[in-house]
Amino acid sequence: MKTFEKSTPRRLSTSSASFTDEFAALLSVQEENHENVLTDVRTILKDVKDNGDAALLAYSKKFDGVCAETFGQLEISKQQMVAAVEKIDPVVLDALVQSIERVRSYHQRQKEAYGNQANWSYEDELGNQLGQLVRGMERVGIYAPGGKAAYPSSIIMTAIPAKVAEVGELILTVPTPGGDVNDALLATAHLCGVDRLFTIGGAQAIGALAYGTETVPRVDKIVGPGNIYVATAKSIVFGDVGIDMIAGPSEIAIVADSSVDPEWLTMDMFAQAEHDELAQSVLISTDNVLLDRVADLIEKRIAGMARGEIIRKAIADRGALILVESNEEALALINQMAPEHLELCLENPDEMLSGIRNAGAVFVGKHTAEVVGDYSAGPSHVLPTSGTARFASPLGVYDFQVRSSLVRCSREGAIQLNRAASIIARTEGLEAHALSAELRVQG
C-alpha cells in the first residue's frame, strides 16, 4: 500500500478572531510567474499566424512527437469517427449516448425558456418596428484536452449546446502525444455532430482556430478547457475571436449537516481534488462532529485512491473544513466564495437555496452528487471558476448566438425620433449626426 504525507485539510472556524484573513488566504490562488509562458505562447501564435500549416506540422513534431509529412495526416476523417463508434465498449457507448441526449434535452429546454432564440420584434405607438435578429454563430472551435487522458465529456458539454444553438460548423482540436488517438473521443465527436477534427493541441491549436491556416478554418469563437498554454493563448487571441472563459482550478464547496453520510462527503471532496493539485475542496458545517469524522476518513481513504498523491496535495494545500455557527453564516461564505460547484447536502436544502446568489452550479440535496454534473445530468459542466460566478454563467445556448438589433422607422416615427436625435447630437457637438437626423425631419 502506498504511503502518503499527512493530508489533513486546514480547519477554520468563523468564531476565530483570525477567520477573515484565513478565509481570504484559502480563496487565493498562488500567482505563478507567467512571463516565460506568455513569451512562448506569443512566439507560437505569431508563427502559426505567419506560417499556417507548416508551423502546425513543426509544433506537432516538437510537442507531441507526431512526425506528419502532410497536414492531411493530422485531420481525422468522418469515416474514422464513425468506425470508432463500432470499436468502443457498448457499455461506454450507452453511457455516452445517455449523456449526450440529456445534455441535448437540457439545452433545448434552455433555448425555449430563454425566449429570444427566435427573432423577435414589436411595433411601438409611432409605428416603428424594434426587435432583434438572433442567429447561431457560423463556425465554432472546440478545444478538448488530450495527452495523459482523453475527455469525451468535454466534447459533449461544449458541442451539444453549440448544436442546439444551430451553429453552422463545429471544428474540434485535440492533442495526441505520440499519435495515439482515443476511440471513445472520436466516437463522441461523431455522436455530437463535430464536422472536422484535427489532432493538434496547445497554443498552436488555439492560433490555428483563431487565425485560420491553409487547412484549419478560422472560427468565430473558441470554447473548451486546456492547460496554462491553452488558457494563455485564448486570452491573447480574444478580440480576434470570442472565447468562453479563462478557467482557473476546479473547485467545490459543500454545505452539509448530520443527515448525510460522511463517506459521501469525503468522496465528493476527493472527486474534486483528483483533478489537479490546485483543485479546491471545501466542506462547511455547523456540526463539528461531522467535520471530525470527515477529517478522519480523509486520512483513512486517501492511500487507496488511484490518484492519491494528487488528492493529498490538493486537500492539504487548498482544502478546508470550516465550522460555522449557523446556516446563515454558511450562506454568507458561499456567496463570498462564489464557487464553481456547490453541494447543499442538507436535510432542508431549499431553505438555503433561495439565498444563493453566486455559484456556477448548485447540486441540491444529499443524493445529488456534483459528479452527475460532470457527466450525465444535462447542464454543461463548463462553469465559471475562481469567484467569477459573481458575474459569469455556465456555458449555454446563449454563448453560441449572435444578436443584431433591429430598427425600422415609420414616417411618423422617423420625424419624432430624428428630432430627439438631432437635439442630443448638437448637445454633444456632433454636427454631422445632427444634420443626418434633421434632413429626414425636413424631408
Can you offer a commentary on this structure?
With 443 residues, this protein is an alpha/beta fold. The protein folds into three domains: 10-29 and 248-377, Rossmann fold, CATH 3.40.50.1980; 35-243, Rossmann fold; 411-442, no CATH class. It is 46% helix and 16% strand. The chain contains 17 helices and 15 strands. The protein has helices spanning 19-27, 35-51, 53-64, 78-87, 90-114, 152-164, 183-191, 202-211, 228-237, 262-273, 288-301, 308-318, 327-337, 350-353, 370-375, 411-427, 431-442; strands spanning 10-13, 75-76, 120-123, 129-136, 139-143, 169-173, 196-198, 221-223, 242-243, 251-256, 280-285, 320-323, 341-345, 361-364, 401-408. It has a six-stranded parallel β-sheet with strand order 1-12-11-10-13-14, with helices on both faces. The longest helix has 25 residues, at 90-114. It starts with 9 loop residues before the first strand and ends with a helix. The model has no long low-confidence stretch (mean pLDDT 92).
